[in-house]
Amino acid sequence: RAKEAGRNAIRLFTPAMAEDARNKLIRIEELRRAVERDEFVLHYQPQKEVRSGKIIGVEALVRWQHPVEGLLLPGVFIPLAEETGLIVPLGEIVLRKACQQARLWQDRGLPSLRMGVNVSARQFLESSLTSHVASALQSADLDPQWLELELTESLIMRDVEGAIERMHELKELGVSLAMDDFGTGYSSLSTLRRFPLSRLKIDRSFIADIPEKPGDMAITSAIVSLGRTLDLEVVAEGVETEEQARFLEGAGCELLQGYLFARPLPSSEIESLIAGTVAKAG
Ligand code: C2E
Ligand code: MG
Ligand code: MG
Ligand code: MG
């Protein structure tokens, strides 16, 4: 049997697979170089506060300015960065850039915006994370209250006790924590209660089919009530239509983020957008 499996394994390793493996190695090498040379830029997607109608925060989303292929989205390189551990230095770059940008906007007299930064599993588990966050805040001279780290349910649930400890460590720096892609994982009410979180971000898969799927609307409303019970603000991601926005506002969702308001934008475009909002409001 073992012999047979061995033969199969050999037969299954086709030239196409060899090609894939080679491409992956090339990609890893490119990514390593990109981290060394810092070929990354951040785009920022606004979050609108329902109560005031104002943009009160942005989420930083990394893009790779690839020398040949142009601007690449995180979906094509974050998983590889995670797999290789390159997410740790990349995450450090992202934290620095995000803190610097938040401080720069403040220096230019824009109303202060909360800056959300995504943290992936590998980064969160690395013991250097807290010191990287502290050093990014310090070198940008940014008040920690403006930085929010977005964690995902799945990464926290791998080791609940360890995660709670790490979260408190981060909280002690003065930053806030949000649970990203909420609803896709398995946190129970009793564990969720123990996390020192400020916000829940409803996964955009629950928003996408509003109003066609009553089940998704019920889940969304339930998450908003859950937020109220646990004293957490709720952010809806992936809001694309007026109808979705109206539903979410009616349900009591505090913050909305999505293409309806703005796509992730380069920093300069955020500035004009905010300036416009301020002028309109004043
Ligand atoms: P995420 O944190 O859940 O970010 C939201 C994603 O939804 C972003 O995709 C954003 O462009 C997209 N989005 C926002 N509004 C809409 C909408 O109305 N409709 C649709 N269809 N999509 C919308 P993006 O920028 O491609 O990022 C994908 C994921 O990559 C992020 O999901 C996050 O998990 C990860 N990521 C992005 N930047 C970083 C980073 O700096 N570090 C780490 N570790 N992960 C990152
Ligand atoms: Mg996020
Ligand atoms: Mg999300
Ligand atoms: Mg996501």
TrEMBL record:
It comes from the Bacteria. Residues 24-278 form the EAL domain. This is Diguanylate cyclase (GGDEF)-like protein/PAS domain S-box-containing protein. It comes from Rhizobium tropici. The chain holds residues 417 to 698 of 698 of the full protein.
